[in-house]
Amino acid sequence: MQTKKIPLDITKATTSRLAEVDFDNLVFGKYYTDHMMVCDYENGKWNTPKIIPYGPLSVEPSCKAFHYGQAIFEGMKAFKDENGKVWLFRPEENFNRANISCKRMAMPEFPKEYFFEALETLLKLDEAWIKTGDGNSLYIRPFVIASENGVSASPSSTYKFIIICCPAKAYYSSPVKVTIAQKYSRSADGGVGYAKAAGNYGASFYPTNLAKEKGYQQVIWTDASTHQYLEEAGTMNVFFRINNTLITAPTSDRILDGITRKSLIKLAQDQGLQVEIRRITVSELVDAAKNGSLKEMFGAGTAATIAPIEGFEYNGDYYELPEVKDSYSQHLKKSLQDIQYNRAEDKFGWRHEVPLDK
Ligand SMILES: Cc1ncc(COP(=O)(O)O)c(C=O)c1O
To answer: With b meaning 16 or more CB within 10 Å and e meaning fewer, what string describes 116-136?
Structure first.
C-alpha cells in the first residue's frame, strides 16, 4: 500500500514495562504496550499525530464524550511470524470502518496516511510486545472520543484519535453457551448497530449480565421489531451450519460488517463449501436443532477469531449441539490463522506487512 509520508511527533518511553508482563497467564486487556498514539482534532483539522509513552489522559469532567457518548472504536490485531515479521490483517477494512462509525456519530473522519504512518511507527516501537506462536497477537484498539468541554447536547468541535495496544492470547478458551434475545435489542433500523459506537456495547451489558446469571456467556441478538431473525452476538457475527450449508445473516444498519465474517465467507466459498448469506429465523434454528440437521454454530470476530457455540437457550429450552468430526469452524479457523500468521499463501491480499526497518 502506498501512503504519503507524514510527520509524527515522537516521544519515546524511557523504560519498558514489558518485563512486568506474565505472558503465560496473560489477562486480556490488563497490560498495554509502552507507547500510544494521540492525534487531536482542532479548528477543523487533525494536528500532527503524537506517539508518546502510554499513560493517563487529562480531560475535564465536562468533556463531551462522557455526557453524549460521542465515542467510537476499532479492534484489530498484529501477528508475528516465525521469522519475526509483523503482519496486520486487512487493516484498511478497520480504517474504513472507523470512518464509517465516525460519520454516523457526527465525528470527523481520520486521514488514511495519518492512520497508517502512526500505526506502523507505533508497532515498530513496541514490536517486542508481539509474541510468535498460535493464538498470540497484539490487539490494537484505535478509538475516537469527543474532547470538547461543555454540557450542551451538540457535537464536539474537538476530538482525540488514540491508538493503544495490548498483548492477546486466544479470547474464549472453551465453547460458549448462548441465549437468544427475546426481550432486549442491541440495535434497531436506522440506528447505530453498524457502527462501532461505544454506547452499543454499554447498552448490551445489562441484558448480557442477565444471560450470564443464567449460565449463558453471550446473547445472540435478534431483530428489534420481531425478535424472529438471528443477527449477531456481543462482539461477533454468527454462523450456523445446517447439514453442510453455512448460513450467516446479511449485514444491515443493525449489524456490524465484521472483517472476520467477510473473510470466513470468502475462505469457505473458495474451499467449495456452500455458503448462504440470508436471513435465518429462530424457528428454523430450533427446528434444525430438533431434527439433528444443526451441526455447528460459531461466533466470528477479531478478538475471539472463532468461538464455537456448544448450545443455545430459547423460550426456556436448552438445545445442545452434537459433537462433529469434520468441524467447519475448526477448519476455517486454521485457514484464517494460517494466513494471519504468514503460514499460507495470501491469495486475497489480506496481509499487510509492518515495515520494521523504517
Ligand atoms: C457487534 C460486533 N459484531 C461483530 C464483530 C466482529 O467484527 P470483526 O470481525 O471485524 O472483528 C464485532 C467486533 O468488532 C462487534 O463488535
So the answer is: bbbbbbbbbbbbebbbeeeeb
Which tens digit of pLDDT belongs to each residue from 163-216? 999 999 876 568 999 999 999 999 999 999 999 999 999 999 999 999 999 999
Maximal CA-CA distance, the chain: 63
* CA 84 – CA 128 distance, rounded (Å): 10
- Hey, CA dihedral for 299, 269, 79, 34, is it positive or negative? negative
Residues comprising the chain, all counted = 358
Residues with Cβ within 8 Å of 86's Cβ and at least 6 positions away in sequence, in order, are 78, 79, 80, 123, 127, 130, 353, 354, 356
Distance, in Å, from the CA atom of 307 to the CA atom of 193, rounded to the nearest integer, reads 21
Q: Which atom of ligand 1 sits closest to the CA of residue 196?
A: 16
* Banded pLDDT at 107 (limits 50, 70, 90): very high
Amino acid at the residue 143? F
Ligand 1 atom nearest to CA at 200:
1
Spatial distance between the Cα atoms of 116 and 208, rounded to a whole number of angstroms: 35
Q: Which of 252, 314, 256 is nearest to 282 (CA)?
A: 314
Give kind and range of the element (H or E) at residue 294: strand 294-301
Cα–Cα nearest to 250, from 263, 237, 241: 237
Determine the residue of 178, 237, 350 to mutate for testing ligand 1's pocket, defined as the one with the most ligand atoms within 8 A of the Cβ atom.
Answer: 237
Q: Which residues lie across from 51 on neighbouring strands? A: 10, 37
d(CA 157, CA 102): 13
Q: How many angstroms separate the alpha carbon of residue 142 from the centre of ligand 1?
A: 14
pLDDT digits (tens, 9 = 90+) for 6-63: 899 999 999 999 999 999 899 999 999 999 999 999 999 999 999 999 999 999 999 9
Q: Are residues 65 and 147 in contact, defined by beta-carbon separation less than 8 angstroms?
A: yes
Q: Residue 205 corresponds to which cell in the numbers above?
A: 451489558
Q: What is the pTM of this model?
A: 0.96
What grid cell was written down for 72? 467510537
